[in-house]
Amino acid sequence: MDVQAAITRVLDEVERQRDFPVELARELMRVPTVNPKFEEAPGINREPEAQDIVAARLAELDMTTTRAEVFAGRPNVAGSWAGSAERSLAINGHIDVVPVGDQAAWSVDPFGAEIHDGRLYGRGGYDMKAGIAAGIAAAKALRDCGIELDGRFEIHSVVDEEAGGFGTKDLLRDPDRVPSAVIVGEPTEGQIMPCQPGLEWVRVTIRGRNAHAGWRYNDIYPQRDTPDRTRPGVNAAELAARFLTAVGQLERDWGCRKPAHPLLPPGITTINPGVVQVGSGIGANGLPVTMTNPAITPDVAVLDFDLKYSPTENSAQVRAEFEEFVRSWAAQDSWLRETPPIVQWELGSLHFPAFDTPLDFPLVDSIRRQRTALGRSAEITGFVAVCDGAFYRGAGATPLIHGPLGADAHGPDEWVSVESIVDTAKVYAAAAIEYCGLRAG
Ligand SMILES: [Zn+2]
C-alpha cells in the first residue's frame, strides 16, 4: 500500500466512524474537568475520571499508556505506538477546562453536551475536548484499517494547560516522550497555525519610604528643616503610577518599532499591567503587608505584567531589553537611582517560549493539502494567544496548532462544529500517514 492509498483508506474509515469522535467528545464533556486552580467545588474538578476515559480508549488501540500525576489527583495520560524517533508525531490536547462563569448567561446545560443545528454545546468542547477526541479518532481509524506507521505516534492528554501548561511541561520532562513534531489540537477554526508569540509574567517591585500622611505637605512643598518633622516620605503608589505610564509608552514604542511577524497582527508585543498591589512594609511573600491604611505614605508597590514578544525574538533578548528599560527609567530619579526597582521573571513559574515553525515544514503543507482536498479553507496564520506548543518547542519538537471550528471558548454557550470534529480527525489521520510514513513490510 502506498501513502496515497493509505490516506484514501483512512479517510473512508473516519467517515464510516464519523459518530465516534463526536460521541467521545460528548462523553468527555459530560465529565466536568474545571481546573481546580480557578474554581474548586464538589463534582466539577473531575480530571481523573475524564483521563480514565482517555486511557481506556488508548489501551483499546493497543497503545502503551502512561498515567502520571502532575499534581495530587491530576494525572496526565499519554499513549503511544512504537516507531522511529525521527518521524515521531504527537497530538496534544488539554483535558482541563475553565469555569462555567455566569451560569445564567448559558442557554444550555454547560456540561450537557447537547447538539443543536450541528453545534455541540458545552464548556470545554471547543477548548478542547473535541481536539482530543479527534486525535483518538484518527488513531482508531488508522488501527481499524490496519495501517502501521513508521514513526512513533502518540496522544498526549494533559492537565492544567489553562493555568500555565504545567501538565505538558511535566510530561516532556521525560526526553523519550518528546516527539519530533506535535500538532496541538486547540481550536483554530480549521486554520493552520505554525507560530505563536512568547509570553512572560514579570514582577517589578518598587520601593518608596514610609511616612505619616499628615506630613505629606512636606513631601510636596519641602519646609524649612525643623526637628519635629520626620524625613519626607517617598510614595510608592506615585512611583508605580509613573512607571505604568512609562511602560505604556514602551509598549507603544515596541508596537511601532519592532518588525511585525507576517502571520501575526501588528503590535502583538504587549505589556499588560495585570495586578498592582501597593501598601506598607514588605512581607516574606514579597507583597505589601499593610494595605488598609491610607494615612501611611506607602513604601512598596508590586506590579505584575503579562509581557508578550514576537516569534522573531527570543526570551533572553526581550528580558534584557525590559531590564534595561527599567534601569534607564530609574536612572532619571535620584531616589530610584539609590533604590532601584527589582525585576523578577517567571512569576508563578510561568514562561512560554515563542515558536516559529518554518512554513516549509512538511506537516504545514500536509495539513493544508488535506484541508483543501476536503473542500475546506486552509489558511495559514499565527496563534495570538499561547498554548502548550511552546513547551514542545522548548523541548526540541517542532509544533503547530490545528483544530476544529466553533466559538465562545471561555464564554457562555461555548460550541464546536460537529462536522469540523470529523474533518479534524481526517486531517490528523492523513497528516500522521504523511509525516510518520508507513511501516515497511
Ligand atoms: Zn485550550
From TrEMBL:
Keyword vocabulary terms for this entry: Cobalt, Hydrolase, Metal-binding, Zinc
GO molecular function annotations of the record? metal ion binding; succinyl-diaminopimelate desuccinylase activity
Identify the InterPro entries for this entry: ArgE/DapE (IPR010182), ArgE/DapE_CS (IPR001261), Bact_exopeptidase_dim_dom (IPR036264), Peptidase_M20 (IPR002933), Peptidase_M20_dimer (IPR011650), Peptidase_M20A (IPR050072)
Q: State which Enzyme Commission number(s) the record gives.
A: 3.5.1.18
List, for all copies, the residue spans of the domain called Peptidase M20 dimerisation: 232-328
Name any cofactors this protein relies on: Zn(2+); Co(2+)
The protein's matches in PROSITE patterns, at most eight in alphabetical order, are given as: ARGE_DAPE_CPG2_1 (PS00758)
Protein's UniProt keywords contain Isomerase:
no
Reaction equations catalysed: N-succinyl-(2S,6S)-2,6-diaminopimelate + H2O = (2S,6S)-2,6-diaminopimelate + succinate
Q: Name one GO biological process term.
A: lysine biosynthetic process via diaminopimelate
Pathway(s) = Amino-acid biosynthesis; L-lysine biosynthesis via DAP pathway; LL-2,6-diaminopimelate from (S)-tetrahydrodipicolinate (succinylase route): step 3/3
What family does this chain come from, according to its entry?
A: Belongs to the peptidase M20A family.
Query: Under what name is this protein listed?
Result: Probable succinyl-diaminopimelate desuccinylase
